[in-house]
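Board work, copied verbatim: Aminotransferase class III-fold pyridoxal phosphate-dependent enzyme
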Amino acid sequence: MPLFDVYPLYNVTPVSGKGVHVYDDKGIEYLDLYGGHAVISIGHAHPNYVKAIKNQVETLGFYSNAIQNPLQKQLADKLEDLSGCKDYELFLCNSGAEANENALKLASFKTGKKRVIAFEKGFHGRTSAAVAATDNKNIIAPINAQQAVTILPLNDIEAVKTELEKGDVCAVIVEFIQGVGGLDQGTKTFFEEVDKLCKANNTMFIADEVQSGYARSGKFFAYQHYNVTPDVISIAKGMGNGFPIGGILIHPSIESKYGMLGTTFGGNHLACAAGLAVLNTIEDENLIDNVNKIGAYFVEKAKEIPQIKKVKGRGLMLGLEFDFEVGDLRKDLIYNYHMFTGGAANKKLLRILPPLNVKKAHIDQFFEALKKAL
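↓ predict structure ↓
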């Protein structure tokens, strides 16, 4: 049976990984500066991660959410400690799209309203409401277009105010650093005013931290660079280091009730074991400090290359903007220099999303290759 052909593929077949490297079926080593869309947070095959999953699958891999699962509470407590999100509650699911879908559903339940405000170049997933809130008409089917969503320009606070005052908006959803869109960010004033306007208009403020969370920005969550209090925070990608897991952190002002949300696989024993291993490693290896140190080093190195017109992003969620489209450059880096990087909706942007334990030597290696490729 052929695979449904929806992915343009590079002619590389990784078969193993270790730390910041992957190895293909020919034994070639690649420097992974993309981590499969920021999923690989603590490195490939981290020994603590491998041990945790191995021990759990040998004990109990799965049972449903109809029974007690203490691993979920352990994960929630550890997440609260490291993130600083005191008193929030955790609902576990399987992916970033599912996290945002549940966040939007919860906002609609809480407010009794249905319209959503999202922003240009935003990406929130491919499920029904999440994809409707994504600024890409090519992936929105007619069945998704039924959703009531208004897409506004980032940083246009008057437009947000006008729409919120109409009284029918259940949620404003925002990436504090846009991922797929190309590392654009709102201003401090904009984000903080949006937060105030949401609270004044009975509207839930949703922080989409699917890509920017889990220390990626240099703080545990990217919204923590600002003085805001999200009602719901969506998480996934780096949360499981490759194991499918997602979730939402829910402000205590939103009351739960049985049947409100649900999932078969979300929060299963293996997913929780993976999630705990990631959090323990972030803490034990001081990875937030490493993100800030290596991120600053990366920015300084980028200044040495005149072809780079702009460095975008924060921490280890970075983009290098050129005055030409980077598709061929990415291919050159893969095939001739054996390095994985990422693209974006901004075709002139090279995205850099390495494991959080990347070292200066790896950054040096990348920039030497980039200079030669350019």
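The CA atoms of residues 125 and 193 lie 25 Å apart.
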